[in-house]
Amino acid sequence: MTPANQTIFEESGHFIVYDEALVSAPTARLFRPEEWGHNVTPHSEGRGTVWFIEEGESRWVLKTFQRGGLVGRLVKERYFFLGNRRARMIREFHLLSRLLQLGLPVPRPVAACARRTGLLSYSGSLITQRLANVRSLASWVSSGERVEDDQWRDIGRVIRQFHECDVFHSDLNAANILLDDNSVYLIDFDRGSIKPGRFGWDWRRANLQRLRRSLNKLSARELFDQERTWGLLLVGYEGAKTR
């Protein structure tokens, strides 16, 4: 069921879902960086490029979905079509909306678009609101800037909040954790989901292990105490346990 503030719009092979409080008249042009002129800036970190959009009071992030791994070398932006509502960008839009309803720290989704690119394939994009004055954990560590002890504990506490709500992040790494002086956010919920409780805790441990591998890669290049900081993160994670 579509929430009251979210509307579906179809245009010439484009399936668009959007927040009508943020977008009044969506079209496919909304998802093309070249249409924004001087109001768009490319930004690269992790896989592919996102675009920062600034127009009027709007501060948005436009992400084009791209495959990774070996498949991504051959087919970069196309996915097997199983229906518009099952498109990855549409599902991420709805998941982010649900996470906000749960009170979790994620960016607000603005709009998503799935584009048919053939009989059996599609591509697409997602626009979210841009979080103010944040940087990724990977950026902090790579620049050599100190992440305070309380921040490491807060990272663990926030991850536990997501886990307590049975939220699975499919790619929990240092680039998908954003920090400002007082807050921690998680981004990029492509292929994420809310898992029923019967799936146990194995996926939660796998989430933490994925993050630790990401930090291990950074510690191989940068001078920071991996064991100590990971211990602080776990203190925050265990301290946030509620059930």
Q: How many distinct helices?
A: 6
Please state the CA-atom Rg, rounded to the nearest Å. 18 Å
For the record, give the distance between the C-alpha atoms at the N and C termini, rounded to a whole number: 29 Å
The helical percent reads: 25-40%
Give structural notes:
With 243 residues, the protein is α+β, with helices and mostly antiparallel strands. 30% of the residues lie in helices and 26% in strands. A hairpin with a 2-residue loop joins β4 and β5 (58-64). α4 packs across α6.
Compile the SSE list and pairings.
Elements: E1 6-11, E2 14-19, E3 40-44, E4 49-55, E5 58-64, H1 69-74, E6 79-80, H2 88-101, E7 109-116, E8 121-129, E9 135-136, H3 137-142, H4 149-164, E10 167-168, E11 177-179, E12 184-186, E13 193-194, H5 202-219, H6 226-239
Antiparallel strand pairs: 1-2, 2-7, 3-4, 4-5, 5-8, 6-8, 7-8, 9-11, 10-13, 11-12
Helix pairs in contact: 4-6
Key attributes of the depicted protein:
243 residues; alpha+beta; 6 helices; 13 strands
Short summary of the structure?
The protein has 243 residues and is α+β, with helices and mostly antiparallel strands. The chain has helices spanning 69-74, 88-101, 137-142, 149-164, 202-219, 226-239; strands at 6-11, 14-19, 40-44, 49-55, 58-64, 79-80, 109-116, 121-129, 135-136, 167-168, 177-179, 184-186, 193-194. Strands 1, 2, 3, 4, 5, 6, 7 and 8 form an 8-stranded antiparallel beta sheet that branches.
